[in-house]
Design goal:
The complex is a heterodimer of chains A (278) and B (47). Chain A has 278 residues and is mostly helical. Chain A has helices at residues 3-18, 22-27, 56-65, 73-85, 89-94, 96-105, 116-123, 125-140, 144-148, 151-164, 166-169, 174-192, 196-200, 203-209, 231-235, 256-260, and strands spanning 217-221, 266-270. Chain A has 16 helices and two strands. Chain A has a two-stranded antiparallel ribbon. In chain A, helix 3 runs antiparallel to helix 4, helix 8 crosses helix 14 and helix 10 packs across helix 12. Chain A starts with a helix and ends in an 8-residue tail after the last strand. Helices cover 62% and strands 0% of the residues of chain B. Chain B has two helices and no strands. The chains are: A mainly alpha (278), B mainly alpha (47). At the A-B interface, helix 3, helix 4, helix 10 and helix 12 of A face helix 1 and helix 2 of B.
């Protein structure tokens, strides 16, 4: 099986594995079992009627904003564990919202290349959102990212539960339609630009990206085999040049660069010891 | 990153320590208690 087909299969299985509470979908209720003791690695709203685990960002905001203790050690430990072991491999393989964006990118429409002058500053936006998420949640004691921005919450929880349960449908207001507009905008962008949410907005991807350079999963470029053809950077959905920065915080470890390389100069895998740079 | 492999092991140890300490403090159960209720804000239904 080709690498990208295998990745798509893993993405589907991961999305299904995290969202396998089928009765919730028919009854308009959410899972209340012990699976929600555990944080899942990707953006997967715990209010989704089929979700089996807890979204790490939702849990972090709940911990910061609901007085679970002064230091949210459990959720931060989970985030740190996913970050150091997998890094942004989570974005490429395990996040259901990443799968959705990949599916939209396959719609045969012309793809736009975001100009560098716009792309560079926008990439820092996700770090600002991560910082604001922590600060504003502490100040306002409410899940500000989930409430105002998170498109996964509306897609996975808001839309199905308001469709299934008339009590929720009656609560739709300005905030619901604001979030719907954000979701539609991100969806429309994903038709023309690959992974726009992951590139510019996702605070979870921003956090995991911090560990790409030091984590267990590494990409390596064999200098002697590289012919500098540039096919890897052209194939990259995140516009990363793997030869210059194989472990860039932006790399979602999708492996398209490895497929595009004519000399198999790029390889990736888990490493227990140190790796040589490049 | 040559010569810095200890960082990932230190981070892994820190992560496991945080999870164990947080779980011992009851934070995992607190996460469960929050995650089993429907979050209206997440759905865009908050005030």
């Amino acid at each position: 099986m080709k690498r990208q087909h295998r990745r798509t299969l893993i993405q589907f299985l991961a999305a299904l594995g995290q969202n396998a509470y089928i009765p919730g979908f028919f009854r308009g209720v959410i899972y209340q079992g012990k699976g929600k003791l555990l944080c899942v690695p990707g953006l997967n709203c715990y209010s989704c009627p089929v979700a089996l685990g807890a979204c790490p960002l939702g849990s972090l905001q709940a911990a910061l904003g609901q007085g679970m203790g002064r230091f949210p050690a459990y959720v931060l430990g989970c985030l740190l564990l996913f970050g150091v072991v997998l890094g942004r491999l989570v974005c490429g393989f395990l996040c259901p919202f990443g799968l959705l964006q990949d599916a939209l990118a396959r719609v045969p429409l012309p793809k736009l290349k975001v100009p560098r002058w716009l792309d560079r500053p926008l990439r820092y936006l996700k770090y600002a959102i991560l910082l604001m998420l922590v600060v504003l949640t502490l100040l306002r004691l409410e899940p500000v990212f989930c409430k105002y921005l998170c498109p996964a919450g509306l897609l996975e929880a808001g839309l199905p539960l308001t469709a299934l349960n008339p009590q929720f449908a009656a609560l739709r207001g300005g905030l619901f339609y604001l979030k719907l507009a954000i979701l539609l905008l991100i969806g429309a962008l994903a038709l023309f630009v690959e992974r726009p949410f992951c590139r510019y907005l996702c605070p979870l991807g921003a956090f995991y990206g911090l560990f790409n350079g030091v984590g267990f999963y590494r990409l390596q470029v064999k200098e002697s085999a590289c012919v500098r053809c540039g096919r890897c950077s052209t194939a990259c959905p995140m516009a990363v040049d793997p030869v210059k920065a194989p472990n860039s915080p932006e790399c979602i470890r999708c492996g398209r660069c490895m497929d595009a390389c004519p000399t198999q100069a790029i390889c990736g895998g888990f490493s227990l010891s140190h790796m040589k740079s490049n | 990153m040559k010569g810095h492999s200890w960082i990932k092991w230190a981070l892994l140890g820190l992560a496991i320590g945080c999870i164990a300490w947080g779980a011992a403090q009851g934070q995992a159960l607190a996460t469960l208690r929050k995650a089993i209720y429907i979050c209206l804000e997440c759905m865009g239904l908050g005030a």
